[in-house]
Structure formats: C-alpha cells, structure tokens
UniProtKB/TrEMBL annotation:
Organism: Bradyrhizobium vignae
MF-aspect GO terms: adenylate cyclase activity
Alphabetical UniProt keywords: Lyase
Lineage: superkingdom: Bacteria
Protein name (record): Adenylate cyclase 3
Length: 459
C-alpha cells in the first residue's frame, strides 16, 4: 500500500522547471507601426539588414544569443551584464552609422532595456519578472538609448566606458515594486530617456503636455476638410494659452493625419501626457463634433463630449466649439494633473498649484476657496517666485472679500426686527441662508450647532 502511494506521489510531482541567472536585453524599433505604414517592404528589408549587419555580430561577439525575434524587436540574453551593455552600445553605434544617410523620418532606431535576474528557461524562450522588467525599461528609453536596472548597474559600474545617469525609482507598468533605473549618457551628453513613467526624474513628460491630433472628417463631403482642420488648429492655439501647458505644434501633429494611431506610442514619440482626438460629421443641416481626452500613459479616457449644432455659419460655430472645448479642457487637464499630484509623495510647487486650481474650479464657496488658497500658499513656500501661485492667492483673496461683502449685505437684509433663537423653516431648508442666519443672529446657544450643520451641506 505504502509502495503504491509513494509511486502515485512521484507521478503527481510537477516537472522540474529550469531556471538560471542571466542578463536580459530587450529591444524594439521606435515608431515601428508608422514606419511599416509608410513603406512595409522597405522597412522590413532595412530591419533585416540591420539585424544581420549590426545586431547579430555584436551579440555574438559578446557571448550572447538572440532568444527570439518579436517582429518589431528582439529578446536576447548574456552571461553577464557587462557583455550585455557592451553589445548594446556596439550595435546602437553601428545602427546610427548605417542609418545616417536615411531621411530622419525613415530611420530605424532601437530602444534597449537591460536587467539582471532569475528567469525560467525553455528551449526557445525565457520567462519571468526579469524579462518583463527589461521590456519595461526598454519602453522608457529614448530612441537610440539604453536603460538598465539597478541590478544590472551594480555589475557594470566602473567596468564599462559608458556613463549612466541615475533616474531614481521608476513605477513601471505591471511591475509591483518600483525599479531604480539608469540611462546611458552618450559621449558625455544628456541621458537618452523618454517620459512615460511615473517616477520623479527629468525624463517625465512636461506637465500639462498635450497634442491635438487632426480631427477625422466623417462627412461624405471632402470639402468640409478645411472646417475639420480649422477646429484642430484653433484648439491647438487656444490650449497653448493655458498657463504652464506644453502643446505640440500643428505641423508635428498633422504628420499623424490619416495614419493608424496608437495613442500610447504617440505619447512616447512626442513625450506628451495627453492626447486630444475627435471627429466631425455633417448630417443634413447639422454638424456633430465628438471629442475625447486620453491619458497616453494609461490609455484611459479622461473626458469625452459631443457637440451637435445647426449649420448657420461654419466659422462662427467653429469659434463656439473651440471656446467651449478650450474652457472645458483647461479644467479637465488641471483636474487630471491634480489627481496625479495627489499620488506624489513629495509634491512640487507645480503639483500644489494644480491641486489648488482643481479646488478653485470645483466651486466658489468659502470652503473650497480656502482649500485652494492653502495649496497656493504651500506652493509659494517651495517657490517664492512662483507667479501663478501668487496671482492665484490674490484672486482668492479678492473673491473672498467680495463674497464676504455680499454676505454682510444679504445678512443685514435677512435679519429680523426681533432676534429669534431659531430661524424660520424656509431658511433652515437652505444651507446657504442657514449659514448667513447663524453668522448674523444672536442665538448663541444654537449658533455653533447650526453652523456645523450648514457647513456639511454647503462648504
């Protein structure tokens, strides 16, 4: 019996998984979808040639092997981090030399991520968090750049000629624990890094950075294209007036017109946090405009709206749509940045300014205004010369002064000839009037209780 039980237990034991410690190198082609859309055959031929003439020789020379090709890139492993970095520097340099004669928009450029860790090994692939981290590091590298993890950096420090800039801890997508990252500094210049992580480093996209993509013309009439493009251009101009915003110019944005769109890829290529996209459709005597604001980091839709207008004057309607969109987007972008700032462990003056503006935009009640003023004041403590915070404090103070004056006038007009210990029911059912009554009445026993009750509903 025991013999049979032992045999069954042996049979149920899962097969042994082969693991090993290795240096993982992940690489992909920047803007691959755009390149393939422009010219599939030429892009495929160039990529094949670069892999044969630059990548494969460098990997082989440094003792590595290509684990697999991924279509727009490849995965490789090396016996040491030092050899992985040397191979990456070698093939990146060679690729740059080979692509020098090509037009910039047709150049094939790789991004590289390197990590050291334990992997699961199969005959034609490797798996595990170490592979995922290398891939995520590659995704934050600038085209032509190399980004490595701290586990790789400790092995290469002082052993390779390449210098690395410390990017701090990065919150990489789908990686539970922040990863400290380092970017290669080419020839003593600036590190080649790109902004789509969340970590506190110079590689992050500019705050309030946005591109307005060319709106799609869904109408059957191609003649309406000028109207559609006009909406895009006007929105680009109006959004650039938002304080602290960084808006991609129309000429760059229009290079994406009529092409397949990957919003996350656009965010990486243009180093922007937000994308505004939309469409215009004419139906009979009416125009319908759909717009949506997307976070390029997460791909989430932050806001969407639809405008349905009769066709009376196209350009007058364009001005109205642009004005409404710009005003709404101003508030939406500030709210999005405020939510992002709330997650920051060490908020900057700009973080605090956005949180203050979010309170200010929420409502003009004394409670929200005082909250906004508090954020603006904290921003000034960090940056005494912050003009936006200083002006915002002045606006809050002015608004509070006007509001208090109106309250005093309203309170005087509502004050009854004979002071009563309790307000009339119609006042008690209106939180604002209750607050005014409490602030002006002599019913001291009830004042504090009523004020607290009113503030719950109003402030």
């Amino acid at each position: 019996m025991f013999h049979r039980l032992g045999r069954e237990m042996v049979q149920e034991r899962p097969p042994r998984v082969e693991r090993r410690l290795t240096a993982v190198l992940a690489a992909d082609v920047a803007g691959y979808s755009r390149l393939m859309h422009n010219d599939e055959e030429a892009t495929h031929a160039k990529l094949t040639a670069l892999m044969a003439d630059a990548v494969a020789p460098a990997i082989a020379e440094h003792g590595g092997r290509v684990v697999k090709n991924t279509g727009d890139g490849f995965l490789a492993e090396f016996p040491s981090a030092v050899e992985a970095v040397r191979a990456a520097v070698q093939f990146q340099t060679r690729i740059k030399e080979l692509a020098a004669a090509d037009a910039e928009e047709r150049q094939i450029v790789f991004r590289v991520g390197i990590n050291v860790g334990d992997v699961i090994v199969e005959p034609h692939d490797i798996f595990g968090d170490s592979v995922n981290i290398a891939a995520r590091l590659e995704s934050i590298a600038e085209p032509g750049g190399i980004c490595i993890s701290s586990s790789a950096y400790v092995h290469v420090r002082g052993k390779v000629s390449t210098e690395f800039a410390d990017l701090g801890e990065q919150n990489l997508k789908n990686i539970a624990v922040p990863v400290r990252a380092y970017a290669a500094v080419p020839n003593g210049g600036r590190p080649a890094i790109r902004g789509d992580g969340i970590g506190p480093s110079t590689r992050s996209p500019p705050r309030l950075s946005i591109v307005v993509l060319p709106f799609s013309n869904l109408s059957d009439d191609p003649a309406q294209e000028h109207f559609v493009d006009g909406v895009t251009e006007s929105l680009t101009t109006d959004l650039s007036r938002i304080s602290g915003s960084f808006v991609i110019g129309r000429h760059t944005a229009f290079t994406y017109k009529g092409k397949p769109i990957d919003l996350k890829q656009i965010g990486r290529e243009l180093n922007v946090q937000y994308v505004l996209e939309g469409s215009v459709q004419r139906s009979g005597n009416r125009f319908r405009v759909n717009v949506q604001l997307v976070d390029t980091e997460t791909g989430s839709h932050l806001w969407a709206d639809r405008f349905d207008k009769p066709i009376s004057d196209l350009f007058e309607m364009q001005d109205e749509i642009v004005s409404r969109l710009a005003n709404t987007l101003n508030a939406q972008l500030i709210a999005a940045e405020a939510r992002r700032a709330e997650r920051s462990l060490h908020p900057s003056a700009l973080d605090l300014y956005f949180q203050g503006m979010a309170r200010w935009n929420k409502s003009w009640t004394p409670g929200h205004m005082m909250q906004a003023r508090s954020f603006f004041a904290r921003a000034l403590e960090l940056e005494p010369d912050n003009v936006e915070a200083l002006v915002s404090i002045a606006l809050v103070d002015a608004a509070l002064a006007v509001l208090c004056s109106l309250m005093a006038l309203t309170s005087a007009s509502l004050r009854p000839k004979r002071r009563r210990s309790r307000p009339s029911p119609w006042i008690r059912n209106t939180p604002l009037l209750t607050w005014l009554w409490v602030s002006s009445s002599c019913a001291r026993d009830e004042r504090h209780k009523e004020l607290l009750n009113a503030s719950k509903h109003w402030f």
